[in-house]
Specification:
The complex is a heterodimer of chains A (340) and B (320). With 340 residues, chain A is mainly beta. Chain A is globular. The two termini of chain B are 33 Å apart. Chain B has 320 residues and is an alpha/beta fold. In chain B, strand 8, helix 7 and strand 9 form a beta-alpha-beta unit. The chains are: A mainly beta (340), B alpha/beta (320). At the A-B interface, loops of A face helix 2 of B.
Chain lengths: 340, 320
């Protein structure tokens, strides 16, 4: 457990970075800080040693996901690329028409998936491609932990697909437009965010005799576009309200249970990131503030003061949980090193 | 609202000349940069990093009523474009010839993320002077596009006689008397007539022309979509008008495509303006009535299967 005793502010432990463009994602491929930027580049390296690596050019970088070793990006040029700590980009895929890559996901085992409109492509760690066509646009993708199965969020539900089998995907129906999707670490829960300002969850049957159970998590004043699971998989922190909304996933999941709320402010939570080893949540707000929130005693530390026009758009802890990388809509960014 | 990116929606039935207009806008030396959302790649004659393909995916939000539909692909694309602010000044959305403009327009009012960052500037409809009359008979989409428009470009006027042209314009006016109409060949018209119209901005809703209000003027066409306009020579009572217009748009919202009005509220020195798309209603007090203006209250409704007498009675009952 990290110590969150006073000082009440961590702002003096932040190194400011200038990314120069809307930050899409903050990640640590191979332990090196990396900011994926909307202008098509990735800024890679420790403060003072950073390089800008142009990946998608003028067409822009739209989506990103990371594994411990690589940052995978999708662009407006129809390309999916990967970047490791050395900074040598590799092209995984190029769409002949140059269509936008709408979503990208990575598994801990190194599998990658991306979508263009209704078409989803999976690429395993040996580079073999499998493609499926859905009846509506794939809005969000997430791999199950073992890297064999993908959840796809789309209009009126989600589909669970095994790319290496001929079996048609399993359809989880729920009326409405599903946007992002996330899977619990034990693979039992599939959670989507919805255009209708709610989350929807499915508990998958543990045995063939059980049925799929639904979880409706509503009441958000805005779309919830950022999810983060606690290190032990027991809690799911979500954005979209004026506090971090944390749903309990112990036992049977959050059905009939109230969520916890942390970090209530007069601003909307835009990004959440659970610490990799403690019940501490980094919360970014649309007014530019970042708070570290400890669930166990509701203590709060400021990591960045509110900054006009600088909403937090990306947060990423390193593997050790000692560093937090963040990025903002106006291209501001920073690296917080927790005092030891 | 000034830093919101303006969005122009180009509609028009197949072959009317949308792509001609789009290419004309993009190739003129206006110094502006446009992000363009198209339904078909490859027809645009301009190299542009910010040409995005759309798939016209309509999301039904609640119970499947037309008033609660939005364009899911537009929400996603505008979200992506807004991360690259500074790269473009405005967005143009080209729809397919079969598209219904309502979900496109409603996206800007129903999706908060889109509405916070972009504003609908105008719906511009390109109509084929030679074929429009035929299409209005067999294609409900063509009729919706005319009814919904803020600007109508009556194109290919060189393919019809002056009498035919007058007839097709009269047909358009029966459906939509409030739009600005331009007669063109090959969509040749000043870009300023198409872009930066502020058609949905309450401050810019122009006076509703008294011409539209001439009773009996547009009755010779039996269209299922038609317009109706009413004038009360004097004030209305806001305590009567507000519940009435809200009830009307809630109950008949599926049939009312567009509505607009400029009203004199009792004891209120400012003009009240409102505009609506299906069930979505927006209204506010605007500038003062000028001394040389007569305080009158006018409203226009464009829609399908509307009972003119019922709406007339309802409106007149709100008179102060």
């Amino acid at each position: 457990m990290i110590s969150l005793a006073p000082p009440a502010s961590l702002t003096q432990h932040v190194t400011q970075l200038d990314a120069g463009s809307h930050v899409i994602a903050a990640a640590w491929p191979g332990g090196v800080p990396a900011l994926a930027l909307a202008d098509g580049a990735v800024m890679l390296g420790l403060p003072g040693l950073q390089r800008r690596i142009d990946i998608h050019g003028g067409a822009g970088l739209l989506v990103a996901a990371s594994t411990p070793g690589r940052l995978v990006t999708g662009g407006g040029d129809g390309r999916v690329c990967s970047l490791g700590a050395t900074g040598e980009p590799a092209e995984i895929h190029r769409d002949p028409k140059g269509s936008w890559i709408d979503a990208v996901a990575t598994s801990p085992t190194g599998s990658v998936a991306w979508s263009i409109g209704k078409r989803v492509t999976a690429c395993d760690d040996k580079g073999r491609l499998k493609t499926i066509e859905l009846s509506s646009t794939a809005q969000g993708l997430a791999w199950f932990p073992k890297g064999y199965r993908i959840a796809i969020a789309h209009y009126n539900g989600a589909s669970l697909w095994f790319p290496n089998t001929q079996t048609p995907p399993e359809f989880l129906e729920w009326k409405g437009a599903h946007l992002d999707v996330s899977i619990s670490a034990d693979g039992r829960f599939v959670v989507t965010s919805m255009q209708e300002l709610a989350l929807h969850g499915w508990r998958l049957p543990a045995k063939p005799t059980e049925k799929v159970a639904h979880m409706r998590m509503s009441g958000y004043p805005a779309k919830s576009r950022s999810f983060s699971w606690s290190h032990d998989g027991m809690w799911l922190a979500t954005s979209g309200a004026d506090a971090v909304i944390i749903w309990p996933f112990q036992g049977d999941g959050p059905m009939g249970k109230a969520p916890r709320e942390c970090g209530v402010r007069r601003a909307r939570v835009s990004q959440v990131a659970f610490h990799p080893g403690a019940y501490v949540i980094a919360a970014g707000y649309d007014d530019g503030c970042i708070m570290l929130l400890r669930m166990t005693d509701a203590s709060e530390l400021v990591a960045r003061h509110a900054t006009r026009g600088s909403a937090i758009t990306a947060l990423g802890w390193d593997k050790t949980g000692k560093h937090l990388l963040f990025g903002c809509e106006d291209g501001a960014a920073g690296l917080l090193a927790l005092p030891t | 609202m000034s830093d919101k990116i303006p969005v122009t929606v180009l509609t028009g039935y197949l072959g009317a000349g949308k792509t001609t207009l789009l290419n004309r806008i993009l190739s003129e030396p206006h110094g502006k940069r446009y992000a363009v959302i198209v339904n078909e790649f490859g027809e645009i004659g301009i190299d542009n990093d910010l040409v995005v393909g759309a798939d016209e995916e309509v999301f039904e939000m609640n119970n499947g009523c037309i008033c609660c539909t939005v364009r899911g692909d537009l929400i996603r694309i505008i979200d992506g474009l807004m991360k690259r602010k500074g790269k473009f000044d405005a967005i143009i959305v080209e729809t397919t010839g079969l598209a219904d403009p309502a979900p496109v327009a409603q996206t800007f009012f129903m999706d908060q993320d889109v509405g916070d960052r972009a504003r609908l500037d105008a719906v511009v409809t390109v109509a084929d002077a030679k074929w429009l009359t035929e299409r209005l008979k067999d294609a409900p989409e063509a009729k919706n596009q005319i009814a919904f428009a803020d600007v109508i470009i009556l194109n290919k006027t060189d393919l019809v006689t002056p009498a035919e042209l007058d007839a097709v314009e009269a047909t358009i006016r029966a459906i939509n008397p409030a739009a600005k109409l331009h007669r063109t060949t090959r969509c040749a018209l000043p870009i300023a007539d198409v872009l930066d119209r502020n058609a949905f901005d309450l401050d810019r809703i122009l006076d509703i022309e008294p011409d539209f209000l001439e009773e009996g003027h547009h009755h010779h066409h039996a269209e299922d979509i038609r317009s109706m306009s009413f004038e009360i020579r004097g004030d209305v009572d806001p305590d009567k008008f507000m519940p009435w217009i809200q009830d009307l748009t809630q109950l008949k919202g599926g049939d009312i495509l567009r509505c607009k009005g400029i009203l004199a509220f009792r004891n209120e020195p400012k003009r009240f303006v409102f505009q609506g798309v299906h069930m979505i209603l927006d209204g506010d007090l605007q500038r003062d009535w000028r001394k040389d203006e007569t305080r009158v209250s006018r409203a226009v409704f464009i829609g399908r299967n509307l009972d003119r007498e019922e709406i007339r009675k309802g409106f007149f009952a709100t008179a102060a």
